[in-house]
Amino acid sequence: MPKRKYKISVIQLNLNDVAENNLKKCISWVRDAASQGAEVILLPELYSSHYFCQSEDVDNFALAEPLYSTSFIAFSELAKELGVVIIVPFFEKRMAGIYHNSAYIIDTDGTEAGLYRKMHIPDDPHFYEKFYFTPGDLGFQAIETKKGTVGTLICWDQWYPEAARITALKGAEVLFYPTAIGWHPKEKEQYGENQYGAWMNVMKGHAVANGVFVAAANRIGLEKYIEGTEGIQFWGASFIAGPQGEILAQASHDKEEILIAEVDLDLQENVRQNWPFFRDRRIDAFGDITKRAIDK
After folding, report:
1. For position 81, which CATH number holds?
2. How far apart are CA 197 and CA 217, in angstroms?
3. Is residue 296 part of a domain?
4. Catalytic residue from among 7, 26, 45, 93
5. Neighbours of 281 (CB within 10 A)
6. Span of the secretion signal (predicted)?
7. Residue 118 belongs to domain spanning
8. What DSSP assignment string belongs to 145-203?
9. Which of 176, 165, 114 has its CA nearest to residue 289?
10. Residues 6+ apart with CB under 8 A from 63
11. Which of 195, 201, 260 is nearest to 233 (CA)?
């Protein structure tokens, strides 16, 4: 029988360093999370480098790695050693001219349980991701691992209820969101509270609407590497929420932390029985959702 309870973890880090150092750092923190009982462990988006999408610079493509190279080898060995599932977000070089913002889901035996490629790609000031990333072509997935069935979505995906819904309908018990989101320093005073609140609220809404656990791992720290700019202040606040949107664990805005919470599938089933949102969906009336706009 599959386990009805298992522990998940998100790791919140400052990753404003070179790839080799970030890899060593993340390996150390994953070990710490596993020693605290974590069974499925999530790292932040693009773990191996600073957030390079603040500019459009072809030199940054050198940060990408082919499938099953450095990151996969290191974390595959670690997952097998520790007997845990590790979700590893990385910059994928698929071929010359095609790059993805991706994540491995590595199972407890070190094998690849799944691969996700970020579907929604933003283009905002200092979040120039369309310059670097081809939209994902693997779709939304529920990945079976030896610990549980999980779904991985990446950062900008978190604003889209359709992504969460499809992933949950496919059977994901937890939606994992590796993230790199922060404030433009000059905007923080005026807009910061609402921006952060919206980020929290939309993902808690996914938890409620789908009766799933939600876990988000963000960065912290000011990453300012382009002359004449103020950089991005990553706001941290990583969290794990239960299927009614309840916060089970919450990190600070400015400290490196490990969060751990328990996924209870009996609780999830009870919530869905009492709030049967899936049962009452009017799928016969949803055809227009596939249109870009509904013109009058």
Report:
1. 3.60.110.10
2. 16
3. no
4. 45
5. 12
6. none
7. 5-290
8. -SS-EEEE--GGGGG-HHHHHHHHHTT-SEEEEE---EE-GGGHHHHHHHHHHHHHHHH
9. 165
10. 19, 48, 49, 52, 91
11. 195
Q: Give residues with Cβ within 8 angstroms of 60, minimum separation 6.
A: 52, 53, 132
Active site residue 45: yes
Considering the entire predicted model, what is its pTM? 0.97
CA distances from 189 to 54, 125, 221, 268 (A): 21, 18, 17, 38
User: Is 155 designated active site?
Assistant: yes
295 located within any domain: no
Quote the radius of gyration of the chain (alpha carbons, Å).
18
Q: Could you tell me which residues come within 8 angstroms of residue 105 by beta carbon, excluding any fewer than 6 positions away?
A: 85, 87, 112, 113, 114, 115, 116, 143, 145, 150, 152
Q: How confident is the model at residue 1 (pLDDT cuts 50, 70, 90)?
A: low
pLDDT tens track for 11-50: 999 999 999 999 999 999 999 999 999 999 999 999 999 9
Structural domain contains residue 83: yes
Active-site option among 147, 155, 204, 223: 155
- d(CA 16, CA 157) in angstroms, rounded, equals 23
Q: What's the domain count of the chain? A: 1
Q: Which of 7, 118, 147, 204 is catalytic?
A: 118
